[in-house]
Amino acid sequence: MITIRPGSHTMRLLHLLSIAGEFPTSSLDILGNERVVKVLVHKLESVQNFCTHRDGRVYTTKLLTISGKRKTRTVRLYKGALPILKEIHADALGYYLDSFRGHKFTRDSAHIDRNHRVNEALAMSMMAGFEIRPYILPKLQMTEILRIVPNTPSFYLARDFKKLDITEFNKTMYTRIVGAVFYPGGVYAVYNTRDAVMKWSGSGEFRALLHLQDLSRMNAGVKEITSALLFGNSPEIAMNTIIESDKSKKKESRFDKTYPYIYFIPMDQNGIRLMRILTLPDWKEKVLNAIFDSKERQGCEFMVYDAYLDGVYKYSHLDSDIARLIRFNSAFETESENFEVICFPWQVKFLKRYLSKSVKLKQVNIDALEEILGLSPII
Q1: HEC profile of the chain
Q2: Domain residue spans in the chain?
Q3: Which of 11, 184, 198, 317 might form a disulfide with 241, Cβ 3.0–4.6 angstroms?
């Protein structure tokens, strides 16, 4: 007998698949210890007795099914297990059936890849503690300026924006945007390059940004969106996505022109911890105040670097902003002997390849930073 309890791996899978429909087997490590999660998934492919913590009713069924090969290998809910969704939330089953044509999925590899891009971002947000369930989140609207979104971080799917019946916005839904993260004081557009260079849609993405700004103004009081979260398997791929967009005929449609601040989020535990930092109220000032004293920061507010002391220019890459890193490197690549870049250990390998060898790297322990910022350890 498997009891599905709040906070358990099984409950997380149910929450995720009730929204995502499917999830790539190659990314199961996002959901926790890879070995533990894979063993659980294998177990849930067999017929088991399940009960929830709510009423003790027993369901005898498989919970999951796996199909596809290699990149298209995907985890989905078993049809016989769908009634269990009613147990996790009254509206979960209805949302699932409406979103996935009554439990029908395409075998087209392009559609599966798109789903996987979206659903990895969903999983990362869920593991960071964001609310991701559309049937729980307040419904967005375009009638009047209101404060609709929660006061805590939340992820809204791009496909659910369509339901607002915004004709112009619907035309942009086949761009690369997968959703938006709302947090106290700001909004991030969300993209996922996975393990390949993302082809930027140029003017289409810029129009999507404009409509997302309208949506944010009406529901969160945020008038301008200047930042994006870019998920990916490596910073090199994310950086190449920006460089590839430089080939656009319209320079104003480049990725880093559309979004001046692009925060690379690795799809692992480091990325999950970074997301929690980037969604704190006034996070940027809090991070800079944590690593520099006021004397170092004096007069640096509008510079490409963050602090200056005794002839050394200091730059923080703790936010993993690769668009700003490009600007920093371009501005000082010929005079980099007096620069120090502050980074996390997982960023060192990439920075050593990208920056001049004369740039000094100073590593910061994320445990210590989280403690200063008041973030409790991830359970």
Answers
A1: CEEECCCCHHHHHHHHHHHHCEEEHHHHHHHCCHHHHHHHHHHHCCCEEEEECCCCCEEEECCEEEECCHHHCEEEECHHHHHHHHHHCCCHHHHHHHHCCCCCCCCCHHHHHHHHHHHHHHHHHHHCCCECCCCCCCCCCCCCCCCCCCCCCEEEEHHHHHHHCCHHHHCCCCCCCCEEEEECCEEEEEEECCCCCCCCCCHHHHHHHHHHHHHHHHHHCCCCCCEEEEEECCHHHHHHHHHHHCCCCCHHHCHHHHCCEEEEEECCHHHHHHHHHHCCCCHHHHHHHHHCCHHHHCCCCCCCCCEEECCEEEEECCCCEHHHHHHHHHHHCCCCCCEEEEECHHHHHHHHHHCCCCCEEEECCHHHHHHHHCCCCCC
A2: 2-105, 114-281, 284-373
A3: 198
